[in-house]
Amino acid sequence: MTEITCIVCPMGCRLTVDEQNDFAVTGNTCKLGENYGKNELKNPTRVLTTTVKIGGAIHGRCPVKTGGAIPKGKLFDAMKEIKKVRLESPVACGQVVLTNLLGTGIDVVATRAM
Amino acid sequence: MEIMFDAAIIGCGISGAAIARELSKYDLTTVIIEKENDVAMGATRANSAIVHAGYDAPPGTLMAKLNVRGNELTKELCARLSVPYKNIGSLLLAFSDEEAVTVQKLYERGLKNGVPDMRILTFEETKALEPNISDEVKAALYAPSAGIVNPWEFAVALAETAVQNGAKLMLGSEVTAIERGADGFHITAGGETLKAKYVINAAGVNAGKLHDMALPHAFDITPNKGAYFVLDKSEGELVKHVIFQCPSKAGKGVLVSPTVHGNLIIGPNALDVKSDETEVLESDLSDVRKAAVRSIPSVDFRQNIRCFAGVRPNSTVEDFIIGAHDGFIDVAGIRSPGLTAAPGIAEYVAVLMRENGAKLTPRSNFIDRREHVRFKDLTHEQRAALVKENPLYGRVICRCETVTEGEIVNAIRSPIPPRTIDGVKRRCEAGLGRCQGGFCGPRVLEILSRELHVPRESIQQDKNGSYIVTIHLNSLKS
Amino acid sequence: MVDLAVIGGGPAGLAAAHAAYQSGLRDIVILERDRELGGILNQCIHNGFGLHRFKQELTGPEYAGRYINMLNDTNVETRLDTMVIEITPDKRIYTASPNGYEMIEAKSIVLAMGCRERTRGAIAIPGSRPSGVLTAGAAQRYLNMEGLMPGSRAVILGSGDIGLIMARRMTLEGAEVLACVELMPYSSGLNRNIVQCLEDYNIPLYLSHTVTDIRGGRRLEGVTVAKVDENRRPIPGTEINFDCDTLLLSVGLIPENELTRGAGIDMDLRTSGAVVFENMETSIPGVFACGNAVHVHDLVDFVSEESAKAGGAAAAYVGGCTHESGGARLKNGANVTYTVPQRLHGHVTNKEIGVFFRVNRVFKKSKITVTADGAEIASFNRRYMMPGEMQHVTLKADKLAGVSDITIAAEEIA
Q1: In this prediction, does ipTM exceed 0.90?
Q2: Global pTM value
Q3: Which residues of B touch A53 (CB under 8 A)?
Q4: B438–C131 C-beta distance less than 8 A
């Protein structure tokens, strides 16, 4: 059994998820909360946003994000990988700056034209 | 090669700076030795910023004489050196019949000290001048010659004048030893040894220690802390004069006053401390709050933008300790009204040097003027002309105080260039306002880094060690 | 003479300018003090923006980019690196930029200056004054735009969203975030940020705690945190010491209105913003205000919506549409801390009037009641409300004709 806070709406229900019992969720007050509780325990994922070095632009750092959510456990390894990226202006918003991050199939994209 | 200086001034607070400027009027070689990375780093930067009228000190004391003389000189010097100063007058409030007697006594003392134009006001007269004062007030001593000043800019301006006239300023040099040799004093400071015929000890809270390096122990400095609030400009017009309470054993009491920047300053309390500890305790703040509302019940402390504390270099002697001992001149125990007295102290030190054999020949090309362009004080037409001449004056860096890049760059290229964020603040007021440098801090950092050709990570907020950022991500190896 | 001058090129100014253009104005200028458009969004590199406005989760720069692109297709003029120094009641605007010091006359003005962060001074934290104590927004700018790390061991005071976001950001960049400390018994940040910025990284959240001492002569060396009682006073004996080199403050935002005050516009002490009518017009006809300069919003999407209203109204004003004053005033009822708008015009042209407000505490199942001159005209049910979450209700204009006082109140229902 694991207790987590639901983030679907501002109510912030305390959910209890039973891993032993097919991730059954209790404590939720709506269906969305149940889905959230199941996914958060089965396969928690996050979109990672950070910056990378860029030359020749208005600032020295270009904001980037993972094009989709990646496993929560890989966030720090992902940071290490993304730190290796070096960009030169011009960069378009949405431009892929790193493909297939850590074999997740997710690309890292610039979130700003610079 | 060792140079023999005519005079070595130890400490570049308001006293040291005023003395340096005074001596630079004469054909002397002067060195100013300061342990911190900028001038005005001790009591000078954290005080009430008041130019006192001079009725507090007992007649006949140096404090009384130099206060009244300093008051006159400050007015004149600030105009000449483009330092913010306002002659707003002060009111000393009496809340009881007993305090009314004190007011009368101080009035008589003021007369003896030569304070001009004082008057004792009734409650009604006081209320007419200051509608926000407490209804508990019985009477007040009005001293129109009192004023307010920007103390750190005053010290910077005085020191800059000295430097422009040839004085050498050594920053980041702490004096660790003074020996008396046959050819003068040998001063060890920051790993170097300097020689000087006269030493002027203006070391603030460290003046006792400095004295003891050269002479037998004679006095102790007893540091005394005072805490303040600075309120937003929205409260700047709550009072129009410096509002004092009657002095007690603890000091001059809590004042409420406008500042030259248009804020309201409230403080200080008085607490003996071990050294130059400037921590503000919750009890300091509540003491000041309680005392201040006695004078002005409507003070809105929610408009506070900054709390700070300063340390007064009080001493075991009742008066200022200013005296010469074979070329070693103490300027010690310079607590309130030290800021006001400083120009008077400087004149007196020159007299002492002369009495002790120094030859003071006026310098023929003495530079005695300083311009400080403040964009926000200009008219629309002047601003337009200035930006046309130098586009950097068109870029506002500090939005709260409307300080432009032109002013900041100008300060960085001045005779005593600031190397820190607070150094810039002390010279051109960037970061002094309500956002306390939240917006302009990163921009000032960038300008300092660019103008001084140093990486941003090496710029300090204030004293050495007060770094702002740790590393640049772009410099990391991946 | 320009038709419209927009003061500020952040999300509010961008949306206002765009809406004014869409409403037919052509001679529009945006005056932006920074060297680029987008305002604070440029440093908000995290995602979570745009769910309402674009039905998509965007980062701050992406959200700003959308509006900047929309404006690129118009002839709206943008003056960057341009600070507005003064606005006069007759709509003359003095600006400073390296290109010159100028006076612009405008037929209409939209005030969109945004807000600033409360500082250490505003909350009077005792202690020494070392470096390393800075607002979360300043730290965010250093880190996200300039690539400069503000420190390596941090405590965050305040659980507002910027503080939470910075807790995660500093952690990802290798700093250690020791604690997030909140004075109130609840967080003012989104649950999502509590979970994804604190819990994901095992950063403890201390509710009903505050920083009572700051130590360090030059750089910050540590802070003391203590529990507070119901009156938010520190409880002796509950102190915890943290050794840290950084204290980030996320203790509230204040609308920036020096220009507004300078122009003599009526201000609301509750919001620290201008008093506005239902079309975002201020007490000076033709001068409108929107976004965080009016009241601090939780979501940029609502800023865009409100600002579009202001931009559209500015266009209508320039087109000759004027309003009578003398309409209703909106007032705080029970448990409500402010309303925007604060006033209605005498004759309201819109059929519906949207009202934003905030409540003063956490509410479970509750009812919002709107009364006009004492008679209930509308009520709304809510499952949950908290001070950190802006509330919105829509009123029917036909029920408000001739009314002088409108009161909005909230109460918990069993």
Answers
A1: yes
A2: 0.94
A3: 473-474
A4: no
